[in-house]
Structures are given as structure tokens and as C-alpha cells.
Amino acid sequence: MPALSARRVRIPTTSFPVEQFTLANGLRVVLAPDRSAPVVAVAVIYDVGIRSEPEGRTGFAHLFEHLMFQGSENLEKLAHFRYVQGSGGTFNGSTHLDYTDYYQFLPSNALERALFLEADRMRRPKITEENLRNQIDVVSEEIRVNVLNRPYGGFPWLKLPPVMFDTFPNAHDGYGSFVDLNAATVADAEDFFTTYYAASNATLALAGDFTVEQATELVQRHFADVPARPRPVRPSFAEPDLTAERRDSYVDERAPLPAFASAWRVPDPITDFDAYLPYVVLAEVLTDGDSSRLVERLVLKDRAVTGIGGYLGFMGEPFEVRDPTALLLSAHLPPGGAIDDVLRTVDEELDRLATDGLAAGELDRTKARIATQLLRDLDPVLGRALRMGTIAQQRGDAALTNELPRLLGEVTEESIVSAAAALRPARRATVEVVPGGAA
Amino acid sequence: MSRPVPALTPARKLKLPRTAERTLANGLTVIAARRPAVPLVELRLRIPFAKTNVARGMLLAETLLSGTSELSNVELSAQLQRIGGHLGASADPDRLLLGGAALTSGLPRLLELLGLVLTDAVYPAGEVAAERDRLADQIQVAKTQPAYLARAALNRRVYGRHPYANQTAEPAQVAAVRPTVLRSLHAERVHPAGSVLVIVGDVPPTKALDAAEAALSSWNGGGKTVELPPVPPIDGGPVLLADRPGSVQSSLRIGLPAVGRTDPDHAALQLANLVFGGYFSSRLVENIREDKGYTYSPRSAIEHSTAGSAIVVSADVATEVTTPALVETWYELGRLASTPVGADELEQARRYGIGTLQLSLATQAGLAGLMSSLAGSGLRLDWLTGHAERMASATTEQVSAVAARYFAPARAATVVLGDAKVVTPSLSAVFPIDDGED
User: Fold this and answer.
1) Taking the CB of the first residue and of the last residue of chain A, which one, N or C, has fewer CB atoms within 10 A?
2) What is the pTM of this model?
3) Could you name the domain of life of the organism this protein comes from (chain B) (predicted)?
């Protein structure tokens, strides 16, 4: 068999060029040129997400994302789709806890058109009563297909926050209740746009086949006259950490087998990044592949769970989330599986890690896997535009994207051990899925 | 004030990456492409797997990486991690597919580990028993998913007695598979003859071929050729209503005939499919989503398998609009089949079809998947050039003629999965229904 080399693997970093500037109206711009393929990605990230939506309007940030595609100052309904796709491009948008993004991925000859389309709706989306009612119906079907009509719908991202958190921003259902969605009005949408969709509250990120000069000129041409409005004051969503374990459960009539998810609060991802990063590595030490701690123990050895995943952030976006957030473990159990036994084993393995530290080579190989994943995320120009844009918005400098492999590479064994030691049962929130579908 | 939408600047020509190809003495074909944006490599290995027992095939894929005579599953996983790598396997009625990635510096090691698994997987009894249970649980969960159930019903309806009709085993069938059976299945079917390995990444193509040759030349070439019969023609007939009590949505699935990538009708068919429901700016999406709000994600897609191709139309709609949503979908099929396609909508679909070819080449993983799937049709990347030309030159007459042939609702096999008690009255008033009971 091949020799088991003991050579250390060198972890590559990236050096994507990044140019950044801010327009007079406050729009922050990130340019990441890459001429290797004739394609370009354009992303606009607005600094508003589920946590900012008003009480009584659950699901509104997401509903509004749909409305941004329904026509704008110079474009009728359906025109946005047709112009993007008729240029050979694709598009979408998505709503997150702390931001909402809109993006296009196109052949590079459509760059100016893509900028025009984004600028046009940044000036003013065309929100009509008819389009609002239509998109409330569409969003209702989205909720049915993703949450209500399937087993484990919304687990754990919609089910765990209300166990862990107490305040409306952190605990409410980001997909929204049908009652709130149906009560939404055009005036609500106008207000939401005026408050949160200011140029000064947005980041425009371009990656791909252009030169900095050309892109700068095109960005100026289309976005410079977007009216300036003040950036809304982002409130703190802070909540105190748990001091006693929280448990909750719900019956899922569709689910045939038990499942649970647990979460522990982690340090502030923005203001305490050095303390946060060990948790990113720890999640991989615990759950990345057959040689990770919890997969080896719980899946392969004890067969107490059929699968387990560990990640940072309720939407699995460790570098695109603000405080408060958490390290999550999510697992599915075999028939009749006992969640308490599994949680006890998790505690045992965390104790073992906190007491005995890491095995020889464990940290290096985990970091190699993380580096690969970072690189894979950034290979598509669209992935690069989205990550750079969000990092620029939340952390003030898109160039930090290139630093992530190095910063993760510098995470020490001691800091991972401390992180593992901090995941105590008393700080843990857990939600259980009780199968209602099968006896 | 009305601002004009900027025109497109001249398109850059379809730019294919540099590739190299070699067939090893044992019959394995290796194709490599260079795409250097990040220091990673992606690989995809397709091994012909037709007529494999479904339960055995699924479990073989689940346990192929469970250990070799010298490496346990945990050790194998740790070895892969060291190079930032992973490997995974899946099986379908056509092929066993191994996929993986690693840091560029780890390519030789990744290929060595791949070779080790191909030649020396041992299917340890304990690991097989564990995976058997896990797979049975996963199948049990899948059988509660509407998307899975609707597709399984459509496959049975479209493929009849063909092996494509049944692509997932029952838990009891999985439970009956023993390690010895997996070892013989591996010995019989996991061979390089007819297999294609694709390597894409930040590596000169010939260097990738050399690395593959070094690692995989000793893989035993003694395989046999097994071919599937062609798929049967799709027949129309009543709507199959599959009951899922308590559903808050109905899952509509429609199967229509299609042709493979090398058929003279293919480019025009792809354009007709785009016009119908193959992208967001299509008739189906504009009608049942953007106009009527019946559904979140209606779509149609051409699916290519070795033994035949099919168009699959799908939409998940609110239970109370099941019948009108199916009426509108059938209306759009009939309209496409019986009236000419508009010049504007064809132009737009054409630009989308050609433009997205460029996008599909722009990532390592996307390129590797595309090359592997083209290889499944016996094609290489350069086929895209001709395909773009064929899409560019297809006329409205050609597209309309193809639409009439393939989108005729009389040939549509239709399945509705939903709460039968609720939807039957209105559905049976419009469509002949087969409730699945003999």
C-alpha cells in the first residue's frame, strides 16, 4: 500500500485582487477582477435581514425580497427576469438573518446591463397591490413546500432559535406566519424600502471578467445618481447567554424518526473574531467525516445517530452572521433512539476533548479540509462576489476574505480545547423532533 | 423619465479549457481539464453499473469507502482529510459515480486512495451492518418526502417494466444484503472497462493523466459489458392520482418523450423546453407562478440517461388549486405543441441557452460534472461548440415542429401526489383519473 506520509500539508491561501471604494451616496463597492473566464457576477447586499423586520410582520424581509423582482423605476413586471436570462445569465436573491442579497451571474458582455438592473431597483422597485398579493401567494407555497408539506420542515433553523432566544428579533419565524404575510400592505413595503434599502445601507460586489477602470466607470454611470438616504441605525440584538439548560420538543406528524438539534452561544463573530474562529474549527473537528470525533463515536461506533452535522450560524454561514449566534449540532436518530443518551455522549466527547486535547495530526488535517472548503466556496465568481460583499459590509474590508485561510490556520489547539470546554450543558438549548408519522 | 436598458457588448467566444485524454491499458479512459482559479482538483469517476440489483447497488455505494484491507473507514477518512480531500460514492441505474476533491498538492495521494478503494475495498461486516441500518432509515425518511414519492410514482408510470422504473430499494431489501454479496458485486462490476475518470483543476492536463496512470494502472480490467434495453415509449392516458392524506400541497409531475444529446432534434428540443418551462422567463413560470401564484417553483427539464431521455415537468401547488394548476400546465403543453413559437421568445431562450454554456464552464466542480455527464453520452467538451452553433441556427419552424412532436399532451404521463379525498372531485371533473387501484 502507499506509504502513509507524515509530511505536513501546506495550506494555500488566496490572493484574489480586491479594489474597494464608496460612492457619494454611500454605496460601498467591491471589485474583484478575474479574467480567467468570460463571466461576471454582480451582487447587491442590503444590510437588513430577518432580525430587522417589524413585530407583527414576520416573514416581511423575505416577502420584500420577492417584491424586488416585480418591476422597478424603468422596468415592468417580468422584465428583470427576461433581461437577465435573455443575456445568457442567471439570477436569484436570498434572505438571511443579517442581510438580504440579490445576484446575477452572466457572460461578461452583459455586465453593464446587470448594473443597470440593480441600480434601477435600488432607486425604486415598482410595488403594486396586485404584485404584492401574487407574491404573498408564491411565498405561501414556498413555505408549504419547504416547511409544512414535508418531514423535518424548517428543522432546525426555524425550530431552535425560539428555544434559545427570548427577544422578537432572534426568536421569531423568519419565513413568517400566514396571518402576518396576508396582513402586509403596499405601504409597509414602501416604508421598508425607504428605511432599509438606502444606497448607504448596501454593498455592491463585482467579481469576474472586467478591469477595475472599466467596472469603476460603469458603476459610477449607473449608481452615482441613486438618491442618498441616511443609513438606518442598526439596533443591538444582544441577549444574555443561557445560564440553565433549555429543552423543548414538538411533534412532527410527517417525520418517521426522532431528531434533535442543540446549540451553544459563541463569541461575537465580528468584534471578537479571534475568539470565534476556534469554534469554526471545533465544529469540523466534531463532525467532518468518518474520522471526526462525533461521527466516529456516535455514527460508526455507538450507532446512536444515523447522521450528525455541526456548524456555525443558524443558516450555516459562519462568515456572514453577526452576534448573537451559535455553534449547532444537528442529528437524526434511528427508530426508538434516545436523545438523552446521545446528549450525554456529546458531553462526554466534549469533556474528553477539553481534558485530553487533540490527537496528533488531528488539527492539521481538519484545517486542510476547512481550507479546501473555503477555496471551493470562492472558485465560482458568484461565491466570491457574495462572500466579499458580505464581509465588506459586516467587517468593513472585503480583503479579509483572502485572510480567512491564514487566520483559520493560526487557530491553536489550546483555543479549541477552551472552546470545547465552554460547551457546557447549562449553556445549551435543545429542540427535539418527536416523530408523529410512525409508531 | 425612462432610461434605456444598456445593450450587450459583443460576446466573447465560447472558451473551452485545455484538455487531454488517455485510455489506459486496462480500459480506463482519463480526461483532464485545466481550470486554475483555485489550487484545488476535482475528480469524477463513472463506472458502468447497469442492471445491478437496486438494494445491492445502493449499499455498495454506501460502503465502498468503509475500509480496505489495511485502512479502516476512520483511517481512510483521516488520510483524505490530510490533503483537504473527500471522496463519495453514489449509484443509479446507469452508473456508479465516485466524486471527490482535494488540494492540488494532494492529487497523487487522492488518486492513490481512490485506487486503493477500487482494488481493495473489503466491505467489513460491522460497517456493512451499520450502513444497512442507516440506509434503511434514510429510505424510510425519503418515503415521507413528497418530492421523492411523486418522482417514484412518475418513474413507475413512465418506465413500466424497465429498470429505470424502480430506482430505490425497500428497507427490507437493503436489510437482506450481506457483505459477501457486496464483495462479489464489486469483483464483478467495479472495473475500468467503459469507465471514465475526469480530473479538473489547477494542474497541467498531461500531468493529471500521468498521475492517474501511475495510481490506477493496476486496477483490474476484467469487467464485462452490460447494457440496458432502450426505454419504452411514453404513453399518455389517465392522470395517476397518488394519495398522500393530509398533504397541504399537490405535487404535479409530467413525463414527456425526449431525445439524447446526439439526436438531430436535440438543440431545437432544448430551446422548446426553455420556452415551455426550462427557465424562469418561461411560459409555465409566468403563467402559474407570476400570474396566478399557484406555486413557488414550477419547472421543466430534459433528463438524459443512457437508455433514453425524458422531459420532466414539475410543480408543487396549493391543494385547493390542484385542478386549475394542472389545467394551466396542460394548456401550456397544448399551446406549445399546436401554435408557432414566437420569434422574440425563441430569441430570448436561444441567448439563455448559449450564454449559460459559458457559465457552466466557469468552476472546477461545474466543469467536472459537465465533462462527466457528457462522457455518459459518449461526448467530450468540444461538443459544446457544435451545440452552441445548432442552438444559434435553429429556426422558429424547427422549434415549433419539435415542440409539436415532443410536447403533445396526448403523450404526457401525468402524476398527481396529494390528498386524494380533497382533490378527486374537481380533478375527476376535468381529467380521466387512475387512482392506482387495480
Assistant:
1) C
2) 0.96
3) Bacteria
